[in-house]
Amino acid sequence: MTLAILPLTHLGSNRNGAIVAFGGTIIVKTSGADMDHVDIVDAVYQAAVRSELWPDTLCAIVDYVGAVAGNIVYQAPDGHGSFLIPGRMREDLNALYLQHYTGNPYARAFEKVKPGEIAVGNRLIDAKAVRHSAFYADICEPQNIFNQLFLPHASLHERGGIGGVALFLSRQQDEQAGKAAARLEQLSPHMARAIDLSFQVNRIARARELPQRLIDAIADAAVLIDSRGAVLLLNAAAETLLKQADGIFLSRSERPSLAAHISKTSTRLVNAIRQALLIADGEDTPFDGALSISRPSGLPPYLVMITPLAPTAVSIWDAVDSGARVLIHIVDPEAKTRRQAQQLQHIFGLTEAETRVAALIGSGMNLPEIARVLGISSNTVKTHTGRCFGKTGVRSQAALARLIASIPIAGNRPATPSRTNGKSRPQP
Question: What domains does the chain contain, in order, with CATH numbers?
Answer without folding.
Answer: 19-208 (3.30.450.80), 217-331 (3.30.450.20), 335-405 (1.10.10.10)
